[in-house]
Amino acid sequence: MKVSVIGTGYVGLVTGVCLAEVGNNVTCLDIDEEKINMLQLGKSPIYESGIEEMMEKNLHENRLSFTTSYSTACERADVIILAVGTPSNPNGSANLLYLQKAAENIGKHLIKDGTIIVTKSTVPVGTNNKVKQWIQQSLTEPIFFEVASNPEFLREGSAIQDTFEADRIVIGTESRYGTHVLKELYSPFQIPTLQTSLESAEMIKYASNAFLATKISFINEIANLCEKLDADIEDVAKGMGMDQRIGPQFLKAGIGYGGSCFPKDTNALVQIAGDIEHRFELLESVIRVNSSQQIKLIGKALDHFGSLKGKKAAILGLAFKPNTDDIRESAAIEVIKTLLHYGATVNAYDPVAIPNMKRLYPESAEIQYTSTAYEAIANADMIFILTDWEEIKELNLPTIAELEKKPVLFDGRNCFDLRTIQKSGLTYHSIGRQILT
Ligand code: NAD
């Protein structure tokens, strides 16, 4: 099939490359010329394992191309996939401006009957009907097209694997024709498909993310109770997860969720409910719990030191989770902001996310970036582990314990076994477990 993907971010690029990999002829479009120039040279603007190799292969085999031209992307496409960002408005609702602009541009350049325009971006219920109107109003001649909703569930860091091994593909369509085209598009992936209305497909995405966020805030609240009641959250979560009705996933206590999806999508769902005069109190609590959880370690540091003024903090991990360079809504942003507020200075390290964080916090007297974790730790009074990168989980604790200042370790991801910590002699605060001194 001839497929065009609009937006070459984390979702659009991975989708485009994977669809080319299974034999489609894919054109990826972005308005960001710099990104397109890089992509044309086979360089990925995002860090995602395996993406450059797969891109190079499909560029070489002429199944993949990159453009900034809507006429090139639209003129012959059987399917056009919208994967532009839908960030939060200041009130938490989803900002649909990028989507509207993209839809209007598609309308202006559509010349072939029968194209299916698929929204993969996460959008409020009812948006696909708006997409249809935006395209319709921009057409330069009467052309038959259909819209479809096809929310994306990939996770950054394992996006290619998630695309090939997804649990389900959800397709909300207007007609049997749309269902047929999309089922054919996805048939090489051999993944169970659920066909629904446009509205149900749109809701499935928000409901899924809100539910996962709820699981995280729930286990974090249990962790907060464990700390006061001498229970151990790791054992509690394990015991809960062994119940098949609950399941072990998303029961990892820590400093909360971040990233470009959960915070934005939970806020948007609260707004979607508000628009129909329904107060989604459960989700409001989930969001509140997460906000306080993100800076939980600062409270522990204040309790430990009394004051953080003049203290040096090593921040290990800036990305919102391991294996990505994405720092959107990362706990590290809140932790750094709060540490600086209390007069501490920061040495920050992350294997790949430093360039992104530097755009937000340029190097200064208060914040320095280091090229290894050990450099960040060298003269620190306290260490904050914020992302559970494999290399951070493998830190040599005895080496840290031998440092002159013997920094206090605040672990926001429960990276270490308590027995291992005990042997190291470090002072250790984690989430939902006893303090070791
Ligand atoms: P992103 O910010 O990484 O990429 C969006 C891209 O769209 C950018 O490259 C931008 O330049 C481009 N763009 C903006 N306006 C455009 C236009 N008019 N025409 C062409 N290109 C345009 O975003 P993302 O993380 O890939 O997310 C995209 C959508 O997918 C969002 O709705 C998000 O909620 C959803 N989603 C994201 C993830 C994820 O893990 N990142 C997972 C599932 C769903």
UniProtKB/TrEMBL annotation:
Write down the EC number.
1.1.1.22
* Entry's Gene Ontology molecular function annotations: UDP-glucose 6-dehydrogenase activity
Q: Which Pfam families match?
A: UDPG_MGDP_dh, UDPG_MGDP_dh_C, UDPG_MGDP_dh_N
Q: Which part of the chain is the UDP-glucose/GDP-mannose dehydrogenase C-terminal domain?
A: 314-418
SUPFAM superfamilies for the chain: 6-phosphogluconate dehydrogenase C-terminal domain-like (SSF48179), NAD(P)-binding Rossmann-fold domains (SSF51735), UDP-glucose/GDP-mannose dehydrogenase C-terminal domain (SSF52413)
Judging by the UniProt lineage, the source's domain of life is Bacteria
By sequence similarity, the record places it as follows:
Belongs to the UDP-glucose/GDP-mannose dehydrogenase family.
Report what the protein is called. UDP-glucose 6-dehydrogenase
